[in-house]
Amino acid sequence: MAWILLLVAGLFEVVWAYSMKLSNGFTHLIYSLITVVMMMASFGLLSVAMRSLPLGTAYTVWTGIGAIGAFIVGIVFLGEQIGLMRVCAAVLIVSGLILMKLSAH
Asked: Which SUPFAM superfamilies does UniProt cross-reference here (predicted)?
């Protein structure tokens, strides 16, 4: 169950990062509210997941989901460029997430 909560927390992190970008420096109220609500939900689920997962594993996986999710959202929705080095960096992040998951007891 902790892994599912952590996954959802990571997805909420992607949502708040995207809505923060759309808030234009917190000048658009709706996107600003979405950002704050998703941040609270993401941090809340992360804290519950950390009850049974090691800190290093939970935090690394949470930030990794957010990083890869933001990378994908940036490409798909914001027209950000896909470069070889960016893709290699994303592959390394995913590799690290897999290793963290495999090393968790």
From this structure: Multidrug resistance efflux transporter EmrE
Phi, psi values for residue 80, rounded to 5° = -70, 150
The domains of the chain are located at 2-103
Helix, strand, coil percent content, the chain, rounded in steps of 5: 80, 0, 20
CA 90/CA 72 separation, integer angstroms: 10
97, amino acid identity: L
The tokens 């049974």 sit on which residue? 52
Distance, in Å, from the CA atom of 67 to the CA atom of 17, rounded to the nearest integer, reads 10
**Gap between the Cα atoms of 47 and 9, Å rounded:** 9
